[in-house]
Structure to design on (293 residues):
């Protein structure tokens, strides 16, 4: 029986004089239309539209503060927020809060991703296991995750364990469902070919299942990293004395509204960095897929 190891490498399936490109007459090359040609020197529209929209929002913000006479305690002007942000960035304690939040988010998200992929492959391969576990998994997702934080604090105290558990629980479900969906997307014909070639379980996993499910898994990771950051910040707000969530509550209790806005901007930049890292991972792992563009 022919196996994957017996197949010659691509490009050597037949002699050169028997290949279709040698037997059929070659058509003259056709230049692509001008509309489809890449123009590397031309700026993309979003590079101009995004800064223009940001500038418009800042002008509207400043105009509303100046014309309405609203108190700076309620809505500080953009200049005051920028000054508070620079003051935060200059403080060494701020970077310790950033590092702790990044560590807890990254660790919990990594644990959730590995657990979700492993569970997703186990469930996706065995329909009876999916029918058994799906009601429990879906029911667990209906419970608000924030409501679990006091219970985790009672069980594990105020250390890093409750934050890691909240991050893991919140990031698990999107990656899990995407993994199962990716396995279901495998073409039956491709699976039949692997069976006919007597592929082992490892070969089926490495050459068919992982490449087919990878785009779906990465899509779930893009959603999961957002939920992971939300879970980490909320957990730090409720049960921590460090981290960006704690810093947010500290500025609120100190009635420093400009610094409160500055921490929110810092959180937005923090989340963008994690999201861009997952998107970069997509370009690295599945550059052939349309979602990587």
């Amino acid at each position: 029986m022919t196996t994957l190891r017996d197949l010659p490498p691509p490009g050597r399936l037949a002699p050169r004089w028997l290949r279709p490109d040698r037997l059929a007459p070659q058509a003259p090359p056709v230049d692509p239309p001008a509309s489809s040609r890449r123009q590397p020197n031309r700026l993309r529209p979003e590079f101009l539209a995004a800064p223009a929209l940001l500038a418009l929002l800042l002008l509207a913000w400043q105009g509303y503060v100046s014309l309405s006479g609203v108190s700076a305690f309620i809505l500080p002007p953009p200049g005051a927020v920028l000054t508070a942000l620079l003051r935060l960035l200059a403080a060494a304690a701020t970077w310790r809060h950033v590092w702790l939040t990044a560590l807890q988010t990254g660790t919990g998200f990594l644990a959730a991703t590995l657990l979700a992929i492993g569970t997703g492959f186990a469930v996706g391969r065995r329909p009876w296991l999916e029918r058994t576990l799906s009601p429990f998994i879906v029911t667990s997702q209906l419970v608000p995750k924030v409501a679990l934080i006091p219970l985790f604090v009672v069980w594990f105290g105020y250390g890093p364990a409750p934050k890691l558990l909240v991050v893991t629980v919140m990031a698990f479900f999107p990656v899990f469902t995407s993994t199962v969906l990716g396995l279901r997307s495998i073409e039956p014909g491709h699976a039949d070919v692997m069976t006919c070639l007597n592929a082992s379980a490892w070969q089926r996993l490495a050459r068919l299942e992982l490449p087919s499910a990878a785009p779906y898994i990465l899509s779930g990771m893009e959603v999961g990293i957002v939920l992971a950051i939300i879970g980490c910040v909320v957990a730090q707000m409720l049960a921590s004395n460090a981290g960006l969530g704690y810093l947010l509550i500290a500025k609120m209790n100190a009635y420093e509204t400009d610094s409160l806005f500055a921490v929110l901007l810092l959180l937005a930049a923090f989340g963008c960095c994690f999201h861009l890292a997952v998107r970069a991972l997509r370009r690295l792992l599945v550059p052939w897929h349309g979602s990587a563009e």
Summary: Residues 9-24 have pLDDT under 50 and may be disordered. The domain at 89-292 is CATH 1.10.3720.10 (MetI-like fold). Residues 211 and 286 are 8 Å apart (CA to CA).
